[in-house]
Amino acid sequence: MSDIGSGDEGSSSQKYQGMEQGSEYDSGQQGQMEQELATKMLQIQSKRFYLDVKQNRRGRFIKVAEIGADGRRSQIFLALSTAAEFRDHLSTFSDYYSSLGPPNPDNVPEDGKLKSEMMIKDNRRYYLDLKENSRGRFLRVSQTITRGGPRSQVAIPAQGMIEFRDALTDLLDEFSTDEHAYKPDLPEGRHMHVDNKNFYFDIGQNNRGVYMRISEVKTNFRTAITLPEKSWARFRDILSDYCDKIKQPAGASGAPGGALGVQDQPHPLVGNNTQQDGGTSLK
């Protein structure tokens, strides 16, 4: 008997929407800020699978899309760390599958499940079920989110689990070198309106780490600066210092703001410059 999972058991014709509405995989403007880094295509029996490594402002992830023989499409999304855990489970499930004897249509489990595992990543759950039905054995991978929404799932024929694992490993080896720095829950963007200007504070992430983009927007004008995360504390301290000094009364030197902080450097054209006039030092 061929190890082909049932289309009804293993895939859904619905396009999964839950991960496209404010999730870490989409900023709300789908596709506009998304970059595809790599893709692999696998033909496993009557199904095609596409493994796409993508990147948006919140980081990298893998989209797994299943295209059935009838053209139906299903997809799930995996953060790179989740994809690595899934890869390890594929090895375990494949070993278990290899230990089973030939399918016996007279001895199929009532719910069809032969082995199950669950993965949890932030607000998402992934259910891995090695199942058997009249068409054979397959691994069903279901994804849900805690705040509700439709379930998305793909079904991998059991005979293709090793091929699927190897393709996933190749992508992880190439793109997960910065996964130790990946932060899935970045703060939401902020907005501030001052006079006729708008300022936008957006937090993003790329292969060099987390950054903040501060954009100044007027009617026909836009400019922006980008600050790496490691500079935020110093940037904040400098702003805070200026806020404190601008509120202070004139200091002993007669200039607003008093003395500079120990680590502050004066502008090269002001501050401690001295002029000589007839041997008298003027400050």
UniProtKB/TrEMBL annotation:
GO terms for cellular component: nucleus. Residues 24-33, 271-283 have a biased composition (Polar residues). GO terms for molecular function: DNA-binding transcription factor activity, RNA polymerase II-specific; purine-rich negative regulatory element binding; RNA polymerase II transcription regulatory region sequence-specific DNA binding. It comes from the Eukaryota. The keyword Transferase does not apply. Residues 1-33, 250-283 are annotated as: Disordered. InterPro entries: PUR-bd_fam. Residues 1-13 have a biased composition (Low complexity). Keywords: DNA-binding. Belongs to the PUR DNA-binding protein family. This is Transcriptional activator protein Pur-alpha.
